[in-house]
Specification:
Blueprint (H helix, E strand, L loop, with lengths): L2 H33 L3 H4 L14 H9 L2 H32 L3 H13 L4 H14 L6 H26 L2 H9 L4 H30 L2 H6 L8 H5 L11 H36 L1
Helix pairs in contact: 1-12, 3-12, 4-7, 4-9, 5-7, 7-9, 8-9, 9-12
């Protein structure tokens, strides 16, 4: 391959990446623009990217009409609890599946992947009956339980890959030096798994924060509802959306995921590089 061909291929790759970024960014940028537009611009036949007369009226109306702060707190509680529990349960399970490979662990890994293909609607009725018998309907604890069970298979699958990336020779060397199994896991394996654990926790958090279907079915009273459910309240009886408040509330709902990812993504990358140096 000539130098000119390589440069053309590289330029094509960058162009495709730029087009993909524009495709991903377009809905979010339009959401921000809509959130700051006054009512007369929202109804204009010639919409513009940048609001001509930016206003916070949509945000004020959103907070006045719906309990967004309470809904955000409910979403935060369920997402944080679900992420922590999923990681605490999945980490030791992933270690056992990665280090002790046999037909049972292989079958379990296959089931983990297949279970992600089941649609929500197939499990909602038996799930509702189980939670009803446990008196966990209309309860954040019940919703956390559902989120943990639903995110656990993929979290387990992710962590198995991270555990397999840690060289077993490091643990064997620690054992030769006299370190016990627990000390080896805590001092050697756990630090190298930190990036994977953080990435898995982030996945579980975002999944729970954005989830709508289970929250809609299981939570009945307004003070227990999560943010995605409350956003539907900005739709009228005939399906007509109140665009200003809806866009403002949706914009606020997307911020936590973006902020968390922006804060920890450098740490995740740095941890991966540190683990690579140690290995």
């Amino acid at each position: 391959m000539t130098l000119r061909t390589r440069r053309s291929a590289r330029a094509g790759q960058y162009l495709a990446l730029l087009a993909y970024l524009v495709f991903l960014a377009f809905p979010f940028l339009w959401l921000i623009s809509t959130a700051f537009k006054p009512a007369r611009e929202l109804g204009s036949l010639h919409p513009t990217w940048i609001p001509e007369d930016p206003t916070l009226a949509g945000f004020r109306q959103a907070f006045d009409e719906q309990p967004l702060l309470q809904a955000a707190l409910n979403s935060l509680i369920t997402a944080v609890c679900a992420a922590l529990i999923a990681v605490l349960v999945a980490t030791p399970m992933a270690y056992v599946m990665a280090r002790h490979r046999n037909k049972l662990s292989t079958a379990a890994t296959g089931w983990v992947v297949i279970s992600q293909a089941f649609p929500f609607v197939l499990v909602i009725i038996p799930l509702f009956l189980i939670l009803k018998n446990l008196h966990l309907i209309n309860s954040l604890a019940g919703l956390v339980m559902v989120y943990v069970v639903w995110s656990l298979p993929f979290a387990l699958w992710m962590l198995v890959g991270y555990v397999r990336a840690v060289p077993p020779e490091l643990e064997e060397a620690a054992a030769v030096d006299g370190a016990g199994k627990v000390r080896t896991l805590v001092s050697i394996t756990a630090p190298l798994l930190a990036p994977g654990i953080v990435a898995t926790a982030l996945f579980a958090f975002i999944t729970a924060w954005n989830e709508f279907f289970f929250a809609l079915v299981l939570l009945k009273t307004p003070e227990k509802q999560t943010l995605p459910v409350v956003l539907t309240h900005f739709l009228g009886a005939e399906g007509v959306a109140d665009l200003g408040p809806l866009a403002a509330a949706a914009f606020l709902a997307t911020l936590p995921s973006l902020v968390i990812f922006a804060v920890i993504q450098k740490r995740v990358t740095g941890g991966m590089l540190t683990g690579a140096v140690k290995s």
